[in-house]
Hints:
Elements (H helix, E strand, L loop, with lengths): L1 E5 L4 H12 L3 E6 L14 E3 L5 H10 L4 E4 L6 H6 L1 H21 L4 E7 L22 H19 L3 E7 L1 E3 L17 H9 L6 E4 L11 E2 L1 E3 H14 L5 E6 L5 E2 H12 L5 E4 L8 E2 L4 H7 L8 H14 L7
Parallel strand pairs: 1-2, 1-4, 2-3, 4-5, 5-6, 6-11, 7-10, 8-13, 9-14
Antiparallel strand pairs: 9-12
Amino acid sequence: MRILVTGGAGYIGSHTVKRLLARGHDVTVFDNLSAGHRAAVPADRLVVGDLRDADQVDQLLVDRRIEAVVHFAAYCYVGESVKEPAKYYANNLQYALNLLDRCRRNGVGKFVFSSTCATYGVPTAVPITEAEKQAPINPYGNTKLAVEYALSDYAGAYPFGFCALRYFNASGAAPDGTIGEDHDPETHLIPLVIQVALGQRSHVEIYGTDYPTPDGTCVRDYIHVDDLAEAHILALDKIGPGAQLKYNVGIGRGYSVREVIRTVEEVTGKSIAVKEAPRRAGDPPALVANADKVRRELGWAPKYAELRAIVETAWNWHKAHPDGYAD
Ligand code: UDP
């Protein structure tokens, strides 16, 4: 399949691109390298460009006779989205709508969208099924949900099908050690704790210790980035005209912030200094997936079913690349 991957040089994007190429797909990566890394994808696959430039996107869809789009390009920080919503509405919503409409005009019939468990807000039941009401509590979740709405309406009206994958917490790195996580600034828990283990930070802050969870810290479902990547590949095979697929993708097991820190201590053999800090705005207490639907309908199953195995791959990457891609 001829596939355009927006944001394909980013964290989840690059792991998905690696897998798509291994399956023999013809992949074009479109990335402005604001968060992505040139070294994370093969040079001959990368087109540097910005989704703001809808005409450039249009040209690519036509020139490369694109059949499917996998759309990762987006900002992904909950906290930042609360402080700078305009940035999120422009990038995550406005440019996504531009892309979607260019797909429609050019007859691109398959679209895989990076959605998020943040579209559920504070869920009424955990583990979360797709039947849970979507009621985001931060701008990041709002922008992602808005795109889901547009996708549903497009699929209802045009010869177009989509799959929205509602990610839980992507983590880990490629087991061959070639690509991994590198955000600047880094805000995600696992890499931050690993940076403490590497001596790059003095301590990690625990954002909130008074949540209604077993140890008072937030609980999240950490899913290995390669397992997440595989869900995109299965989705591409499944999407037909009019398809409106929506799946939670997580391992179905939650770990608290303190459990994550303990696991990193076990894997690295280092003790991690922590400081208790106030809650971070926009964080629900617990987000754990019920992923029965994606297992049933796509035949997806995580290869990494335990946090420890996920952290081991992350540790291997960060140990070998203490400065990430160093770009
Ligand atoms: N977290 C934390 N300290 C940090 C970074 C994150 O306690 O320095 C917590 C955060 O509040 C959340 C969990 O770790 O409950 C996972 O956060 P992350 O930013 O990795 O992912 P998110 O859940 O925001 O997608």
